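Slide 14.
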Amino acid sequence: MSAIVYAKPYKLRAGALALAVHCAFFVLLYFGASWKAQPPQGMVVDIWDSLPGIEAAPTPVNVEPPKPPIERPKLSKPVPPVALPKADIVLSQKKRHQEKSKPIKIEPKRQIEKTNVQAEQKRQEKLKVQAEQKVLAEQRAQAEQKMIEEQKVRAEHERARAEQADIVAKIRRNLKAELEKAEPSKVIEPVKSAASLKADFELAEKKRLQEKFQEALKSEAKRQIEKADAQSKLKAQAEHKIEAEQKVEAEQKAQAEQKTQAEQKALAKQKIQAERRAEAERRAEAERKAEAERKAEMEQKAEMEQKAEAERKIQAKQKALAEKKEQAEEKERARQRAHAEQKLLEEQKEQAEQKAQAEQRAKVEQERARAEQKAQAEQERARAAQAAAIGKEVAEYKAKIIAKIRRNIVMLPDIPYNARAEFDVTLLPGGMVLNAILVKPSGNAAYDSAVERAIKKAEPLPLPPDAALFNNFRELHLKFSPKE
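Slide 15: predicted structure.
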């Protein structure tokens, strides 16, 4: 039970720490994402130690010299997109003019030109993305610079407020010192009229000093108000300046986008022109093909007429007809023989393919059997290694349990050296002892009782962190002897 009571505070602390870490992580994600999505508006402020025409404070104060304002990084001009390489287009047009006379297809060339145009478009898009990323990086750098400047302005305000507090404190200390100096030592005089005169004098002096203190406070407050007004005016001027710079940057960005759009339009126009030229060439090629087909048809028609004339001549000659019939029969027999040979070759080829497939299947089956045997052997080795590791860990923790119990055994002087007691110990998952039964006494009741007390005192007993190994420790048979 003590182990459970001690573990609760650590669990609460661990849970609180985990909750705090997760909250910090979510806060960091939220503010990081919002800062990235909407960069803060910054401003540039010139910090002065004192405004011209205003009197300095009554007491001198050491003021650090103002640091020079940090120059804001200027936005670089947008990277102009690279012009389209015209050399490839000129070269392709030249090749097209040279190959017009050849009767080959132009479809692959058109595809190559289309691929080149697409590659050029991708390169232009990549350059545009790089330019946008560069502009975003510069904007982030400007936002960080503005945040640093705002922090410096806030630090300067804090320093000014601290200086004001120091000045007021010094004025109060000086006035208090003057009051203390002005207060005369108290002397008991016997004459009552002299004491009353002295009290009146002290009261008038205190009143004069208080009026002087109030005037100093009013003048200091007026000076601080004037200084705050001047700073607010400077801040407004800086904000106007930043707005003007942002407007100029927006105009530059719009001009760059317009230029990019114009270049894209020009690229699209060139693409359309290239497609139109390819279409015209394709139509010309189709017309040439149609003309060639008409010519071939006319030639075929003339050939057919010549053949008909020859057949009419052959019909006039019976001998030629008989010879022709005999030749046709011989041709048919040759065709049948060729068909039979081809069928035989196809059957032999099919048998060879079936044999090759059977050999391939046998080879695959052998490879699979070898892979299964190898995997089974690997699993056996892994199980043996795991069993050895588990046995080693079980033996180690059993030794730890026996060692912890032995440290808690209180040895008496009259216990024999060869005494030996054996216990059956039943454990709970937390290492607590459910019961400890003496199964073989040592012959000395004092030693048996000392061992039993040591078992109870040693709880919780050490157990391995893996809960799956607890079954090896649920029932333990432990042996104890003074000589071990």
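Speaker note: The chain has three domains: 1-38, 41-186+219-298, 341-484.
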